[in-house]
Design a protein that fits this description.
There is one protein chain. The protein folds into two domains: 157 residues, Alanine racemase (TIM Barrel, Alpha-Beta Barrel), CATH 3.20.20.10; 131 residues, Beta Barrel (Lyase, Ornithine Decarboxylase, Chain A, domain 1). It has eleven helices and 19 strands. The strands form four sheets. Strands 1, 11, 14, 15, 16, 17, 18 and 19 form an eight-stranded mixed beta sheet that branches. About 3% of the residues have low confidence.
Amino acid sequence: MRTGLTDHSAPAPDDAMHGAGDPGEGGRITIDLDALAANWQALNARLTGDGECGAAVKADCYGLGSDQGLATLWTAGCRTFFVATPQEGRATRERLPDATIHILNGLYPGAAEFYVAHGLRPVLGSMEEVAEWRGFIAGRSDPPPAGLHVDTGISRLGLSLHQARTIAAEPTSGFSPGLVMSHMACADRPDHPMNKVQLDRFQEATALFPGARRSLANSAAIFLGSDYHFDLARPGITLYGASASELPQARLRPVVTLESRILQVHELKRGETIGYGATFTAPTDMRVAMVSAGYADGYLRASGSTDEKRGADAWLAGYRLPILGRVSMDMSGFDVSAVPPDVAQRGAFVELFGANIPIDETAGCAGTIGYELLTGLGRRFSRRYLPVLTARGES
């Protein structure tokens, strides 16, 4: 029996994954838990020295589903988790009783008792939060742990270096951070000068708190090299199969496959238009598959095409399917002219992203990033989980 894990077992794989599936489903999301486990272990193996690999599991494990995602990461060997809100922290604690859980959004006003009751560690990011936490732990012989967030250049949450020096100069205040962290702004671009600026500032900040663990590396920063690894990395998007960096090695195994059903195949004659706004005109006679996925499902409207702009592609049986015209609320049209009619037919499923159409490609066609696609997938898609196939982690 595994320790530290409340049982939320993933369902068995659906043998109909590549067949007809549930006759009532218009679209489905397949999540490869073996790939998730392998990605965490690959990132963990990249860390140098005694560095620990944690995991960012906010937003329902980036849309994958916390029950299955957390169980998979724990079994793979992950022990430290980062979420955004205390509510996410409480839900994570219910699933992982023995995990270390950090709250990236810091300390909510008046919520210190809530954090302690659920074993959550706020990452304090302002002087107001530090003051409130100091007041809360005053007089305690064994104060609960908390971290410190120092802003080194992204200018979101976090203390300035000057404020960090002020806190470090008051060692008798009763507060000593167990973790000092910062967040990278441009780590996805390895040659960006901001990376070195933030590294230098982070080293200055952590030198003020020699007893604290240090965490700078998000997914992309892990691939910047050992200088950025420190004591604790906290990968997010790369775990879930999207790329966090321009570096080709930063894309690991795809985890999520999005498929949707063909509703109808019809002819589009040369010169005819398709969809709202008549933005796409057929340059020749075409066959069009109308697919049951639209912006209400999280398949972004900006993925569409016009006469001047190519949009996203889908995939069916070895063929790329260019999108035609605008994405509607509930459907999108794709060119299946090259696909044999007995393959591109009513009821068949096409891949919108996955192993054949990388999620980053689809996101790029919509002018966004894989994060937004993963966290915005709609409730109308059914979900199925493929199990971990290889023994990993502790048993």
